[in-house]
Amino acid sequence: MDAPLEPQGASGVGAVESAGGEQVDERIATWRQGDCVVEDDWFLYRTSAENPLTDAGKAAVVEGVENAETSVRGFAVLTQTCDLVRHCADHPFVEVGPLVEVDDQVLHEIERGRRPNYGFIPGVADRRLVADLDRVMTVEKAVVAAWERIEGCRTDDETRRFSLALARKRARAAFPDDFVVFARPLMERMSERHDRLSDEGRVLRSLREVRVRAAPSWDADDVELMFWFIRNDDEPAFETEDWEHCLTALPQPHSTSGRFVRVDGVVLTLDDLTARDYVESDPLDLDHLSTRRR
Fold this sequence. Notes:
Layout: H1 8-18, H2 21-28, E1 36-46, H3 55-62, E2 67-77, H4 81-84, E3 93-101, H5 104-111, E4 118-119, E5 129-132, E6 137-140, H6 141-145, H7 156-171, H8 177-193, H9 199-205, E7 207-215, E8 223-231, H10 240-248, E9 260-268, H11 275-279, E10 282-283
Parallel strand pairs: 8-9
Antiparallel strand pairs: 1-2, 2-3, 3-5, 3-6, 4-5, 7-8, 7-10
Helix pairs in contact: 9-10
């Protein structure tokens, strides 16, 4: 008869300490969420022996294994800093995402938040490297402690922006399909004119985000929409007529709109938006309005 398993605290802590847990804690204490290692490495993931979907997965199955590997330029730490610096005997794991190289245009779009599948990391942006947020691998902290750390985020603002990118990846709103169709002309116009050297392009570049609220709910038979165009506080205050570009571009109810019976919009700053309005609204994603394939 097999011996019963011991509680993890009894032998686990001792094993970690004897293997150099204190040294791991000391080295990893300097790491922060968003920090990176840049070196040729491998991203490991599980594939299906019956139905491998990737080239690396198919190659692994040919070799008789179900663990596939792909080469990467390095890794970015995705684990929150507060968990990262906790004692490795109690919290031995770290989530990391692979670094991938992109061209200048894609890097610019990622920095603007236009590609939510990637995370912009200022510390490696000069190498055109970004974090691929679609792929996450778990490693032990001792692995991270042995890496040569590159500071990913140098200021509080950079740290906050990277954390928001991670949150946005997991918490994006999946809008109803009829709203996706209804709002598509607005989003396409904003995407197309964002970089233009025009009054409209200048206004769009000054926006922090666009949020929308459905009343009484997204599932109601008749829905009233409110769009909030939230501009950055540090941007110059444009003339009122400049902001009319945003409001006149709003889609309007018509015979094919179905449930959307009223549409309003306003330009404001975060100071002007109530906390209730913020939590009861959803941010529009300029890259993907819906998680459902159309």
